[in-house]
Amino acid sequence: MASDRAYQAVVIGVSAGGMAALERVLPRLAADFSLPVLIVQHVGPVSDSYLPIHFSMRCALPVYEAEDKQPIEAGAIYFAPPNYHLMVERTHTLALSTDDRVNFSRPAVDVLFDTAADAYGPGLVGVILTGSNSDGAAGMARIKRRGGLLVVQTPESAEAPQMPLAVLERVEVDHQLPLSEIGHFLNSLSNE
């Protein structure tokens, strides 16, 4: 199913329909899931920190709102906070930024994916779920150039298919999976 390389981290980008999509992926990650999971869900700039609280009650793994200079731990889930770009430093720590919006978004999927691709190279798994714009397509292309693995939700299983379609138009992905299979697939990568 996957290659023989050892994966080090998973990045997930999601927008419109994201809450329901993440409900079908994150709670399915096993308690012994060994990879950190970094997530950009497009939210408004004055949103509260509902996502980490919501998913911490539904997931076997610890769930955090990302903090600046926080070390990335194996088997933990990190959400980008509202109105901050989430980035990965080469030392595998998190960084937050209030730089300009990218693709009309802050946090932006491309910002996370670009920096994570540079930090993890072929050890990175990029995942794009439902969303109504093209944020994440450039970041997925960068992950591919760095040798990482690309997973895209099948557009027909997405509430908003534009983000998956934008990726499929731009780069050859490794796996197109219906939403119901993505959590199981990620578990298989962690177990390798």
TrEMBL record:
Where along the chain is the active site annotated? Answer: 15, 42, 135
Q: Which GO terms describe its cellular component?
A: cytoplasm
Q: Which reaction does it catalyse?
A: [protein]-L-glutamate 5-O-methyl ester + H2O = L-glutamyl-[protein] + methanol + H(+)
- Superkingdom is Bacteria
Q: Supply the InterPro entries for this chain.
A: CheB_C, Sig_transdc_resp-reg_Me-estase
Q: Name one GO molecular function term.
A: protein-glutamate methylesterase activity
Keywords attached to this Swiss-Prot or TrEMBL record, sorted alphabetically, are:
Chemotaxis, Hydrolase
Which intervals hold domain CheB-type methylesterase? 3-192
One GO biological process term:
chemotaxis
Q: What is this protein called?
A: protein-glutamate methylesterase
Give the originating organism. Answer: Ferrimonas sediminicola
